[in-house]
Amino acid sequence: MKKLMFLLPFFLLSFHLMAQSPVTIGPKVAYNFNKLSDSNKGSDIDYAYARTWSYGLFFRGSFGKFYLQPEAYFNTKGSNLEIKSDPLNPSTQNISGQVRLTSLDVPLLLGYKIVGGNESLSNFRVFTGPVASFILKERRNDLNLLSRDSYSFNKYNIGVQAGIGFDVGFLTFDARYETGLNRINSNFNQRANSIQLSLGIKLL
Q: Quick one: how many helices (H) and strands (E) in the chain?
């Protein structure tokens, strides 16, 4: 709840400003490279990127060169895993596994148009901002192969995104990086990270 209260003023301000500016609305789809990271040294798990898709809506309110862009999209977070064998038992083998979490992600991005503006059919942009992530479903969690009782994913998480984008006519393209600001799994000290390549269609 504290995480949500932290973001609430930003969303209220964004919708207030967007009501006074040219607004663009449309659907978006993205191809993601997701990975969990673990700051624990000597961890028994190696993490690799998992490729997933996401889809949702974006809203953009422009103020000259600047713009605010709230979004809402369904995403799949997680990672591919390689659980290391017991070093004290050479006969054991590494175990491959996966973590797949369905989430609703709600970023609030502040952007700047380096090239182009409101009247231009094309532009080049940079942006950054916070993202709230709500875990809706645990589709797969092979961490229980390591320990059935020592994992628990947080239902609400906060991250930050930054990236670049460009618009051509009614199409909008983004490339962004996201990293978690809190541990998504405190027992394994994990944070969620992702690279996202997205395509949106401006309906307005």
A: 1, 9
